[in-house]
Write a structure and sequence with these properties.
Blueprint (H helix, E strand, L loop, with lengths): L12 E7 L4 E18 L6 E2 L12 E8 L8 H11 L4 E2 L4 E2 L4 E3 L14 H9 L17 E2 L9 E2 L1 E8 L5 E8 L4 E3 L5 E3 L11 H6 L17 E8 L3 H18 E2 L9 E10 L4 H22 L16
Parallel strand pairs: 4-7, 14-16
Antiparallel strand pairs: 1-2, 2-4, 2-16, 3-7, 5-6, 8-9, 10-11, 11-14, 12-13, 12-15
């Protein structure tokens, strides 16, 4: 049975490129024929490319891909490879003389788990495009290969993050999907509020970021993790939206991030959500789309850590009992 995924949205493909030695990678959400886009940046330490372009008052209406990448700011170079792949196939914004592919991007910080001197580049971005199809691998793959969560005590308390996806099709045939790379400062919780991946105590059991912070953990104790986090996501729908509505969809989808990650949107995270509309169907009320987007994003976040595997001594949720 096919697992619901963001690629259930008509016009959306996903590709991964993974460096299992350096523990970094790229995940690309492709909409080659164009998708109306919006973005909402809530974290205090974002790393992004071409997000200003998505402001509803600005000229360009559609994007051809969104890149989610490891490598911190270095990893933004992967978007160049995505641009090249699209350009070679004639996709992009027509400026008369040529077509310019529009490719926003966002990064996670994964330099602390693998090699800090190797990061995604244009070649890896190109490879992710070449691998794109409707099948979406989850867990420790693509931009999620180096993702971790629960880093209030640094890597000593961390567990594995990863890539997750989910979708829901409404009664009128409109689909809303999400894809996320979970690399949070905080913990991931299930719908009942139980921690399934997060900060571990001295005996390796889950104690949770909130408990450690409330217990008097000093700012200095997690100073070395400042800015080393970030959850980045794409929500997509085949409903027809303009840029303002796509932006509101991204804003509402952030609720799903806050439900599944505690705390979210911290000074140390660069939490960013992109929204894409491929415009196949007439749109239901925006409030409906936004509510569903939050739900599917929350599910995708949980799936990301459930699908992750233990790497470099950092345990995955499947190897640690939930709290």
């Amino acid at each position: 049975m096919k697992v619901p995924a963001i690629t259930d949205v008509k016009g959306v493909l996903v590709g991964h490129a993974t460096d299992t030695a350096a523990l970094t990678g790229v995940t690309v959400v492709l909409t080659p024929d164009g998708a109306t886009a919006g973005v909402d940046v809530r974290g205090g330490a974002p790393g992004t490319r071409e997000t200003d372009l998505l402001n509803p008052v600005n000229l360009v209406q559609q994007v051809n891909a969104v890149v989610l990448t490891g490598g911190s700011a270095f990893g933004l170079a992967a978007a160049t490879g995505v641009v090249s792949w699209l350009y070679e196939r004639g996709y992009g914004f027509d400026v008369g003389l040529t077509k310019v592919p529009i490719v926003p991007a966002a990064v996670i910080f994964d330099l602390g788990i693998g090699r800090a001197d190797v990061w995604p580049d244009a070649t890896m971005g190109y490879a992710a495009c070449a691998a794109a199809d409707t099948s979406v691998a989850e867990g420790s793959v693509g931009a999620g290969i180096g993702a971790t969560v629960g880093k209030v005590g640094g890597m000593n308390t961390a567990m594995r993050g990863g890539v997750g996806t989910w979708s829901e099709t409404l009664a009128d045939g409109v689909t809303v999907g999400a894809l996320v790379v979970v690399n949070a400062f905080g913990d991931v919780v299930d719908p009942q509020g139980r921690i399934i991946a997060g900060a571990r105590g001295p005996n390796q059991t889950l104690v949770g970021t909130g408990a450690l912070l409330r217990g008097g953990l000093s700012r200095q104790s997690f100073a070395d993790t400042t800015g080393q986090h970030t959850t980045i996501a794409v929500v997509a729908t085949d409903a027809r939206l303009d840029k303002a509505a796509a932006t509101r969809l991204a804003i509402m989808a952030q609720d799903g991030l806050a439900r599944a990650i505690r705390p979210a949107h911290s000074p140390f995270d660069g939490d960013t959500v992109f929204a894409l509309s491929t415009g196949v169907y007439e749109a239901p009320p925006l409030v409906t789309l936004g509510a569903v987007a939050a739900d599917v994003l929350a599910i995708a976040i949980v799936r990301a850590v459930q699908a992750a595997t233990t790497v470099a001594g950092v345990p995955a949720a499947r190897d640690v009992p939930s709290a």
